[in-house]
Task: structure prediction
Amino acid sequence: MTRPSDEELLATADDLQRTGLEVLRALRLEDVLEAGPVRVMGSVVSGLMTWRDLDVAVCPGPHTTPRDVLAMIERVLRMPGVHAFDYRDERGDRSPAERRDERFHVPFDVVRDGATWRIDLSVFLLDPHEHVVAFHERLRDRLSPAERVAILRIKNEWWERADYPGGFAIYTAVLDSGVRTLTEFDDWLAARVS
Result:
């Protein structure tokens, strides 16, 4: 398999970002979800997209119930092109991290212009996660061209692997440890495990 050039990686990331924002505008999630402001976060904000996955969040409040979330999803399922969804109740001891991260995680797939997009929807209960949006904005603004290419190359190589460590690990390796190549990233990961 031929790896994409730096220029191809950058063009793909830019195209995915532009198209992803168009998809989000067309979905009008704020109107459909009826759960307050929709916060767009993740790689579509930082310009580090390597696949069609868009992170969005709402925070309707702590009294949101599974029934409320299912009502949101029912409205989502009526949208043209939506063909799959997943539901995870990550409240209480099922929360992936801190208490403020309690949520219902409801990613869904939608086809737009022949391409399937994953809309990774988090229905947060306690915190709107503005800090996550701000993190991705700061990340976008601080990246050098070489750092952006390194992150895109590593993400492009790793994203379909079962052991994908996540974007944050890649950002940390590149920005804090100077990793620039796939081999350096493999070594960086191995050092963290040992």
Q: What stands out?
A: Residues 6-142 form a domain with the Beta Polymerase; domain 2 fold (CATH 3.30.460.10).
